[in-house]
Amino acid sequence: MDHPDERERNAAVEVRAQELLFARKLRTALKDKEIAPARYAEVEDACGFGPGTIRMMIGGNCFPDQSSVQRLANYLHIKPEDLWIG
Questions:
Q1: Mind listing the pLDDT tens digit for each residue in 35-62?
Q2: In 10 A of CB 9, how many CB atoms?
Q3: In whole angstroms, how far apart are CA 30 and each of 2, 6, 16, 60?
Q4: Which of 17, 39, 45, 64 could connect to 68 by a Cys-Cys bridge, CB 3.0–4.6 Å?
Q5: What is the Cα–Cα distance from 52 to 32, expressed in whole angstroms?
Q6: Chain centroid offset of residue 54 CA
Q7: Where are the alpha helices (DSSP H) in the chain?
Q8: 41: exposed, middle or buried (C-beta count within 10 Å: 0-12, 13-18, 19+)?
Q9: For the domain 4-82, what is the CATH code?
Q10: Domain boundaries in the chain?
Q11: CA 86 to chain centre
């Protein structure tokens, strides 16, 4: 049987893996849509995000909720599933 500390550590590793996968998917989607970093503020404004949010997301430092993923997907004209893990 797993020790509680080991389960917590494994859960934290899994969450971090999901965060990094989301970051990679978002970076790819932005690149595919030819949205350069100079246009991130445009995406943030359209999605109702604060300044710097896109950079934090693609850096793996900000993990959005489903509502934010839906707004990003709408803006990028892709399915939320193309970004979202869960």
A1: 999 999 999 999 999 999 999 999 989 8
A2: 12
A3: 40, 36, 21, 15
A4: 64
A5: 20
A6: 8
A7: 4-32, 40-47, 53-58, 66-76
A8: middle
A9: 1.10.260
A10: 4-82
A11: 12
